[in-house]
Structures are given as C-alpha cells and as structure tokens.
Amino acid sequence: MPVIEYNPGNLVRLKSGGAQMTVVHAGTDLLDGMEFVRCAWMSNDGHMEEHEFPPEALVKTEPEPNEVFGSDRGTPIATPREGWSGGP
Description:
Elements: E1 11-14, E2 17-28, E3 35-42, E4 48-53, E5 58-60, H1 65-68
Antiparallel strand pairs: 1-2, 1-5, 2-3, 3-4
C-alpha cells in the first residue's frame, strides 16, 4: 500500500501481528527516497513507543472497543493531558 494511503490518526497493525498503532506521520525520506509510516503505540508496561515502518509492512485496522472504552463502554480509559491541543 503506498504511503499516501496512510493519514495521521489511522489505526494500523503490522501484518505479522502485534499491538494496534496510530499513524503519526507518513512520508518519503529526503535522503534515500524510501517511503515510511511513523506510528505510535502504548507498550505493555504503559510507555509510549514510536517507530518508522515501511508501508508494505502495515495493514489498516478498526478501533478495538475494549481498548477505547472502560467496562461501562462510556468512560475512556485515558484522557489527554491538561493543556494538550491534540496536535504534534
């Protein structure tokens, strides 16, 4: 899938499996011309991780309800930090 198919906020997963990730940026490396997709996710120990992947290694996914909402399905598990604008 070409890098143009990925937009910030898209949910993706490695084709080989693993954690659901959020696309942060998609583009082309200016030095070598290779396309990349920068993704962020929460590790099992609660730390935010971020890495670049080739677009061919990713597949788009749908939100997983158990990862978005608490047990009452109306309370988000996490909320943005105070003062966070939602942008980079």
